[in-house]
Amino acid sequence: MRGAPALELLQSGLPDGADLLDDPEWLREAVRRWEVDPGHDAAPADVRTLRSLRETMRDVVAILDGGRLPTDAELDALNEFLAATPVRAQLGRHGDVLLVDMVPVAEGWALVVRDVAGWFASLLRADPWRWKLCASPECRLPFYDASKSRTRRWHDDATCGNRDRVRRFRERKATGGIAGRTT
Question: Phi, psi (5° rounding) for residue 97?
Answer without folding.
Answer: -125, 160
